[in-house]
Amino acid sequence: ARALVERLKRGQSIALVSDAGTPLLSDPGYRLVREAIKAAIPVVPLPGPSAMTALLSVSGLATDRFVFEGFLPARRGERRERLGALREEKRTMVFYEAPHRLKESLGDLLEILGDREAVMGREITKIHEEFLRGRLSEMRTRVESEEPRGEITLAVGGSEGEAAPAQELITAEIEQLRKKGLRVKE
Fold it and tell me: What are the structural domain ranges in the chain?
């Protein structure tokens, strides 16, 4: 990967192709993409079967195993419940999101999953294609100052270990048990 990145730095172009479907999905090619990203070299996907696969192919996140979660629920409580179930997911997760819900969803992702590495793609393979890489906190800050337009695809790195439950989730669980008649001591 480093030798190829050096060639890219010298101005050469490289196309990564595969004889087994979309490159970088379930193969080690993501390491080359990650090194190119670290070197601030643009990585561009070719149009393919979906925004999900295009984003994964240029994300630099692990693609040997991933999970596609589709659109998160529009209602905050349902969205937070779904994200709570994904807290310990070790695979890279891919979501679609509507631009008008992106701020709320990024806030919930950050609060429930923690400040993970992520990549957001907007208008992938279209004229206004844009990628934002960094941590969830950086993405939330960015979209607070300017609401993105167009189709949003978001890849979030998997859990790297046991995460402590968010205080709000613990409080909600206690409240559910109290509604069932249990006392605080129980």
Answer: 50-173
In three-state secondary structure terms, 98 is coil
- Amino acid present at 62: A
Read off the amino acid at residue 27. D
Measured between alpha carbons, how far is 158 from 72 in angstroms, rounded to an integer? Answer: 17
CA distances to 11, 120, 156, 159 from 55, rounded to whole Å, are 24, 8, 11, 19
User: pLDDT digit string (tens) for 52-68?
Assistant: 988 998 899 998 889 99
Distance CA 112, CA 154 (A): 16
CATH code of the domain occupying 50-173? 3.30.950.10
Give the global pTM. 0.70
What are 156's strand-pairing partners? 93, 118
Q: Taking Cα atoms as reference points, which of 70, 58, 30 lies closest to residue 132?
A: 58
Tokens of 79: 């969205």
